[in-house]
UniProtKB/TrEMBL annotation:
<dbReference type="InterPro" id="IPR035926">
    <property type="entry name" value="NusB-like_sf"/>
</dbReference>
<feature type="region of interest" description="Disordered">
    <location>
        <begin position="1"/>
        <end position="34"/>
    </location>
</feature>
<protein>
    <recommendedName>
        <fullName>Transcription antitermination protein NusB</fullName>
    </recommendedName>
</protein>
<keyword id="KW-0694">RNA-binding</keyword>
<keyword id="KW-0804">Transcription</keyword>
<dbReference type="Pfam" id="PF01029">
    <property type="entry name" value="NusB"/>
</dbReference>
<dbReference type="GO" id="GO:0003723">
    <property type="term" value="F:RNA binding"/>
</dbReference>
<comment type="function">
    <text>Involved in transcription antitermination. Required for transcription of ribosomal RNA (rRNA) genes. Binds specifically to the boxA antiterminator sequence of the ribosomal RNA (rrn) operons.</text>
</comment>
<dbReference type="InterPro" id="IPR006027">
    <property type="entry name" value="NusB_RsmB_TIM44"/>
</dbReference>
<keyword id="KW-0889">Transcription antitermination</keyword>
<dbReference type="GO" id="GO:0005829">
    <property type="term" value="C:cytosol"/>
</dbReference>
<keyword id="KW-0805">Transcription regulation</keyword>
<feature type="domain" description="NusB/RsmB/TIM44">
    <location>
        <begin position="36"/>
        <end position="158"/>
    </location>
</feature>
<dbReference type="InterPro" id="IPR011605">
    <property type="entry name" value="NusB_fam"/>
</dbReference>
<dbReference type="GO" id="GO:0031564">
    <property type="term" value="P:transcription antitermination"/>
</dbReference>
<dbReference type="GO" id="GO:0006353">
    <property type="term" value="P:DNA-templated transcription termination"/>
</dbReference>
<comment type="similarity">
    <text>Belongs to the NusB family.</text>
</comment>
Amino acid sequence: MTEDTTKAGGAKPRQSRTGLTSTGARKASAKSNRSRAREFALQALYQHLVGRNDPTDIDHFTRDLAGFHKADAAHYDALLHGSIDNAEQLDALIRPLLDRKFEEISPIEHAVMWIGVYEFQNCPDVPWRVVLNECIELAKEFGGTDGHKYVNAVLNGLAPQLRPLEVEADRASGKAKA
């Protein structure tokens, strides 16, 4: 038996790209410190949305989790506290693009959309396509089966409003769909 087959005799899926697991998710070693910050912020925002836990308590708990030292702590702080502090404004931007009530949206997808909108508005050093891709990856890894498609539709709909010059430049150059 070769190392590319399982004990049952079936072929083991090969990774087509380095840094990916067999399911297509990025391996932990392939993640940037900002990607890790987004993951920890997502976990913290989930605690806020589901448990209505105090942001300071959530923050202390999250910082004690394994691997937090590899995350960009400043970016995590901005995402967590910025999203919670601006939740009403973020929801007001997201709401018109929804086809259902917020109560019917998964808390994971809700938190991912908060992260995306917050970054669109407050992190001009992160290109809008990177924000969109990172949020899609978060939704794929932590959300429901097709939650990433919903996140993609909402954030892609908001990008021209929140990053108009950048989106238009990408469209003009062919980097983004018109």
